[in-house]
Amino acid sequence: MHRQILLGCHIPNLGSLNRTVLKRLLFPITLLILATAASGFISGPIVISPSSPSERDVIRATFTEASSGCQINISTVVTGTVVRTTMFISSVGCVSGPPPVPVPREISFGPLAPNTYTYEFYEDYEGGPQLLISRQPLVVSAAPPIPALSSNSLVLLVVALTGIALSALGRATGQ
After folding, report:
1. Backbone angles phi, psi at 34, to 5 degrees
2. pTM for this structure?
3. Nearest by Cα to 133 from 124, 142, 141, 121
4. Shortest CA distance to 126 belongs to which of 76, 73, 78?
5. How many helices, marked H, and strands, marked E, lie in the chain?
6. Higher-confidence residue: 12 or 165?
7. Domain boundaries, the chain
8. pLDDT tens for each residue of 7-47
9. What one-character-per-residue DSSP string does 36-47 give?
10. Each residue of 75-117: pLDDT tens digit?
11. Between β-strands 59-67 and 71-79, what pairing exists: parallel, antiparallel or unpaired?
């Protein structure tokens, strides 16, 4: 008896299966394979930190990618008040089979000038149409000034340190 293999199951005489049964088997299997092959998708929210960045901060966007081993390239571009991150997904290295594995990712960008920005995250699978995954506001504030000494205080500090240094030298030389 001739046996054919369909997804690891031995089915005697595949030709006797009617078209309806075959369609019912192949449709969900095809969807599963396509979903697995195209998985480089983001699961969960994209978190921006620090939550209230200043003009001095490097900003991080963290997210979880559902990975099947596909080759990933990520770029971030700032155009005006739009910060756009695009995750380019290639089918190179993709593994069809087990469910995708969650992989934490982090992108850094900035510092940015104080302003209100829109942060957008897109996926691009094999150069196809880009899919908007997330859009959220991003407010970058002016950093508080760095404390500095006044000119008079700086002169007083230099005189005091010079006096301490001369006193220490005098003791070291025995004078």
Report:
1. -65, -40
2. 0.62
3. 121
4. 73
5. 2, 9
6. 165
7. 3-37, 42-140
8. 444 545 555 555 555 555 554 454 444 444 444 578 778 99
9. HHT---EEEEEE
10. 999 999 999 999 998 888 887 777 888 889 999 999 999 999 9
11. unpaired
71-79: strand order across its sheet: 71-79, 82-90, 115-125, 131-140
27, 82, 135 from 41: Cα distances, Å: 22, 22, 16
Q: How many CB atoms lie within 10 A of CB 52?
A: 11
* Residue-wise pLDDT tens digits, 106-160: 999 999 999 999 999 999 998 899 999 999 999 999 988 888 878 888 888 899 9
Strands 3-6 and 42-49, by their bridges, are: unpaired
CA distance linking residue 145 with residue 147, whole number of Å = 6
Torsion of CA 87, 90, 93, 96, to 10 degrees: 100
The pairing of beta strand 131-140 with beta strand 115-125: antiparallel
* Beta strand residue intervals within 50-100, DSSP E: 59-67, 71-79, 82-90
The more confidently predicted of residues 61 and 37 is 61
Residue showing tokens 């005006």:
80
